[in-house]
Here is the input.
Amino acid sequence: MCPDITARKGARPSSQDPEARLAEGKGLAQAIGILVAESFVLPVRTVRPATLFGQGQVDRMRIACEQEQAELVIVDGALSAIQQRNLEEKLGRKVIDRTGLILEIFGERAATAEGRLQVELAHLDYQQSRLVRSWTHLERQRGGFGFLGGPGETQIEADRRMIRARMGKLRRELEQVRRTRALHRERRDRAPWPTIALVGYTNAGKSTLFNRLTGAAVMAEDLLFATLDPTMRAISLPGVEKAILSDTVGFISDLPTQLVAAFRATLEEVTAADIILHVRDISAPDSTLQKRQVLEILGELGVLGGEGGEPALPMVELWNKWDLLPPEREAELAALAEADPDILPISADTGLGIAQLEERIGALLTTSARLHRITLAASDGQRIAWLHAHGEVLAEIEAGEGDNGPLRQIDVRLTDREWGRYEGLET
Here is the structure.
């Protein structure tokens, strides 16, 4: 059982509502199968270096643990190694903070080899800071400064050395993953098909929308971080024969820096997309704050490279879970959505607005399409098929005889990007 203690350092304009943050913390715990026995907000006005909380607050936590027979305490905030150890001593129970909880979820959910590598690297980076000198009996066995390790080093130094060695190995393996992903992206560029990336706050409905658009069966449950490993599927859209839709890991407030760094290889798929679909849970009380936090992470990835933090590539904001809005809120938001062409109300669950979404994506992908008249040998089936697959063929007629036989004249609409790819096929 787990009391979920949310620590807040005072209200700030950009902070989540304490109760909403508490609910999110409970959701994180439940996402990994923890039974939450008790949860409450503890305002922290003065941070205690030793325990974060004041003595009275620690006593309240201890009494709640004893009454509920709790085995675990989750502090929905950041704890230093010393604070974590001292709280465990005072409460007589295991204590973890928000970063530790998120790492536990990621460790349980990561399904692919790449995901497991990323999670282990993030966990080791976090664990490295948790190594405090608790083994006082393990002193050096002989003199020296310990630069060479071996028998003269303490247990803590040996652990740190092993962690650093393992992290170095994981980083090399992940660098290979990045190179492999880059090759895959180059292959898709040559193929080529446009790529659409789904991004958004965790539990916003990305995987449900992914399943709706692709007919796939990706895990889509009412859980935080239901999706960790990137998933890609081919879809057809109006005016676009084939496109690749990518589902990515959900973002969250105060995402551990270890995870932002470790999952950069996965999130790089977003930077290579032609269009970004930002899925928002518009029914969430903190939907506006969630949007801000998603955009901050996209900014770190360089996706928001335009002036004033504007998207560097086309982005459509999807107001998902529209069916869950009360009538008065729906009317208010509908007026805002109508005034902004980059906003589209949808419900991935009921299918509301999906047809309009597909038309919008198709229009964005073909908006720069220009008419090209191309003459090819009738025997050049590969390029003719490519034009039919990646462009809008308006006419195809016989065009006489060439040096190598009959010719075909094809009038086709291609975007500038597709035209560049086609020219690459001819070289």
